[in-house]
Each structure stands twice: as C-alpha cells, then as structure tokens.
Design a protein that fits this description.
alpha/beta, five-stranded parallel β-sheet
Length: 456
C-alpha cells in the first residue's frame, strides 16, 4: 500500500509514537502574532523556561493593526497593548518580529509564502485557524490553541492524534469568470461546515493543478471552514518555481520535494469528486460559509440556510441574490489579499467608478504586496475608481481593529468567515471572490462579475 502526501510528511516528522494514533510531531516553522501568543509567553515565564528554537519562530503584527495612519500610535487601548506585548515578548525570547512599519510586516499567512519561508514538506503551525493556507505548498499546516503555542515554543513539537485522509478531486474546465474562491465556496456549500471534520484534505485534479500558487493558497485557506484540520496540494513545478524565486534551495532538498506526491495506490479514508463545469461565481447568503449560492439564484436556494441566519442577514428567501443592496466592499484578508487578487480587481474596475453610497476598501495583505501594487500603478486605478487603498493588515476580515462594518450594513467581503458580528456588531457579511466584490462595488448591488469581463 502506498502513502498519501499527508502520510509522507507526517511520518517523516514523528519524533516518538506515544500510543496507537498518538504521536509527538516535530514542527518545522512556528508563526506567531499578537492575539494568541501573550498567554503562551506568560506560561514560559511562569515555568522559568525559554524558547527551544527561536530561529524556527517568526512573529508579525496583523490582527490588531490599523490600516490607515500606521505611523501614528494605535488608538484602541487593547490593540495597542497586544501589539506592544508582542514586541516585548519577542525581544525577551529572541524571536524575529516584523512590527508595524517593517518592510516585511503583513498578515502572517501572506508573509510566510511571500518571503520563501513556507516550503514543501514542512510542518507549520500558528495560533490561527487559517494556517491551512500554507498547505498549498505541500505542507502539513494547521492552527493551534494558545496552550499549544506555549508547547511549541518550549519543545518545538506537539503531541497530536493523526487525522484521517480525505481526497477532494475537481477536474474539467471552470466556466468563464469563475475563480478559486468560487471553487472553495462551492465545495463548502456541498459538504457543509462539518463535511471534512477529523480529516486533512488533499485537493487533486486538473482544476487545482492549473492554479497559480496564490490561487491554491485561497483554496487551502478555507479548508478549515468545512471542518477539516487542514488542506494541502501536491508539489509540482509551479510550487518549485514559486519557492525558488524567493529562497535558495539545494539539490538534495529539491530532489526530496519531487517525491512529495501521493502514491497511485495510497488509501484515503474519504473521497469526493466534483465537476468543474458545475461551478460558477458564488456568494454566501447566511451566517456560515456553507450557505453559498450562484449569483443567478434566489437567496432561499442556498443550502444549510437557517431561519435564524436569514433573520440576522435581513434577507427574504424569495428574493434574488443579485437584488441585494451593498453598503461596503472589502477586498483583502489572508484569503484574498495577495497581489494577484489586487490585479484582478484593478483590471475589472479600470476606467469605471464605484456606485454612490458604497464604501470600497482595498487592503493589501502585506507591505510587500502593497509595494508591488504601487509599482504596478494599481493604487492609482483603485483611487481613480473611488476605492480606498489602505495599509496592510487583517482589516475588516474581523472586528479586532478600527476597520469595522457598521451594524446593519451589508458587506461583500473577500474574507473567509461570515459569522454573526464577525466584521462588527450587527454587520452583515456576504463572502465572495475579488471579482464579484469589485463588480458589486461598481453597481451597488451583488453583481455577477462576468457582466464586466471580456471573454476574449
């Protein structure tokens, strides 16, 4: 019996088998941010111990940072305290930190790949559920709790039960205007928020093979939204080209990377397949990521839609999705805050103006992404179209900084969660691709992006 990609990486990182199915796993890379690390550092102090391998840790400030006037002190006291604590802890324990203003600062799941730190075959953890993003490189990457953050800081390892393997295969040609964000929203709508619980998902098939690395990151990012422990994609030339442009890699490591694919006779605990031709631009209509529906459907056609979520969203199930008036558009987050996302948006809105009454924010995922956007003059396109081009951070993905959506307002968001209050108390969130978000900003209603795209 062969091995899956997941099995190969897991088995190569087992330090010790504790009992049947329970292993001590070595962690190659630990990313930290200001929200989930303070208690972990306090725990080290209480125990009188240090960080075992500080060179395998990297910290950045992202969740709490404002996305305007970053050169000024943070106004919110709690946010200011958390960011200051991160610096104090990193200084004390010898961990490299990209603080606000640093040229490499940004969202933790964007800077790792962008700086060539995320590489195939690694085990990667962070106190953040969307660590699954790094799985796009053929890594085992997953979010951990604060007590586990302390455990990794102290031992560079974790005691874990091995998850089951799950294969999701999508083959064929995606319809015009359909993006990787639509693909993952479609999959989650079919499987539900618990459809992959207890599993590590491997994405297979021509649709994922044809994606760029940044597109694969969008897919793996949202694996957690269907209950999976994480998601990953096999290593190919696309992966190798992306990493070697950012890091020097020796021949031995390259040779090992080429072995990081699932064997033809490997066993999966669960296998599901979809047709690419069935997937179209999607938006959510409820308060969970599994309420995705096509843009030409009624709100009530969405799966997993509860009466409670309809009431919160102030939606009528009989109305068309495309009739809903938009107040805010947010383009950014660790799901869709990369340079390719910003290019998509700029190409669609170039020479057009946003609708009156719509607040449209473009928030790059890192300082490097922001600099690249400016180099390509994307910032000018955003501003000429009436969009705000902000400084890097998690921004309106979650209400932990100044970028909050007002109560009752409807936001079309490229982020990953639409829970009640996720973007602010009473805020109503519709998840969408960067193209759909951009098109919606132009019309002031939820809009099919293909209306603005030239198929030729």
């Amino acid at each position: 019996m062969g091995k899956t990609l997941f099995d190969k990486i897991w088995d190569s990182h087992v330090v010790k088998n504790v009992s049947e199915g329970l292993d001590v796993l070595f962690i190659d890379q630990h990313f930290l941010h200001e929200v989930t690390s303070p208690q972990a550092f306090d725990g080290l102090r209480d125990r009188g111990i240090g960080v075992l391998m500080p060179h395998r840790c990297l910290a950045t400030a992202d969740h709490n940072v404002p996305t305007v006037n970053q050169s000024q002190p943070i106004k919110d006291p709690l946010s200011a305290t958390q960011v200051a604590s991160l610096k104090k802890n990193c200084d004390e324990f010898g961990i490299e930190l990209f603080e606000i203003g640093h040229e490499n600062q940004g969202i933790v799941h964007i800077i790792g790949p962008d700086l060539g730190i995320t590489q195939p075959g690694m085990t990667i953890v962070c106190g953040d559920s969307h660590t699954s993003t790094h799985g796009a490189f053929g890594t085992i990457a997953f979010g951990i709790g604060t007590s586990q953050v302390e455990q990794v800081l102290a031992t560079q390892s974790l005691v874990l039960s091995k998850p089951k393997n799950m294969k999701i295969e999508v083959n064929g040609s995606l319809p015009f205007g359909t993006t990787p964000k639509d693909v993952i929203l479609y999959i989650i709508s079919k499987l539900g928020t618990e459809g992959a619980t207890g599993h590590f998902v491997e994405y297979c098939g021509s649709v994922f093979e044809d994606m760029s690395m940044e597109e694969r990151m969008t897919v793996c990012n949202m694996s957690i939204e269907m209950g999976a422990r994480g998601g990953l994609i096999g290593v190919d030339q696309t992966t190798v080209d992306y990493v070697t442009k950012r890091a020097e890699i020796d021949h031995e490591k390259l040779s090992w990377w080429k072995s990081l694919n699932t064997d033809y006779n490997a066993f999966y605990d669960k296998k599901i397949a979809f047709r690419a031709e069935d997937i179209h631009p999607m938006v959510t209509t409820g308060t969970a990521p599994d309420t995705g529906v096509r843009l030409n459907q009624k709100i009530g056609d969405a799966p997993h839609l509860s009466t409670k979520s309809l009431q919160y969203m102030k939606f009528n199930a009989e109305e068309n999705v495309s009739d809903q008036v938009v107040d805010y558009v947010f383009i950014g987050s660790c799901t869709n805050g990369r340079i390719e996302d910003l290019r998509l948006v700029a190409n669609l809105i170039r020479g057009r103006k946003k609708a009156d009454g719509v607040n449209a924010w473009v928030v790059p995922g890192s300082m490097k992404v922001r600099a690249q956007a400016i180099e390509e003059n994307l910032d000018k396109i955003f501003k000429e179209s009436g969009f705000e081009f902000r400084e890097p951070g998690c921004s309106a993905c979650l209400a932990m900084n100044d970028d909050k959506i007002p109560s009752g307002s409807l936001c079309v968001s490229t982020s990953n969660r639409n829970f009640e209050g996720r973007q602010g108390d009473g805020a109503r969130t519709v998840l969408a691709s960067p193209l759909t978000a951009a098109a919606s900003a132009l019309t002031g209603k939820i809009t099919d992006p293909t209306l603005f795209l030239d198929e030729n």
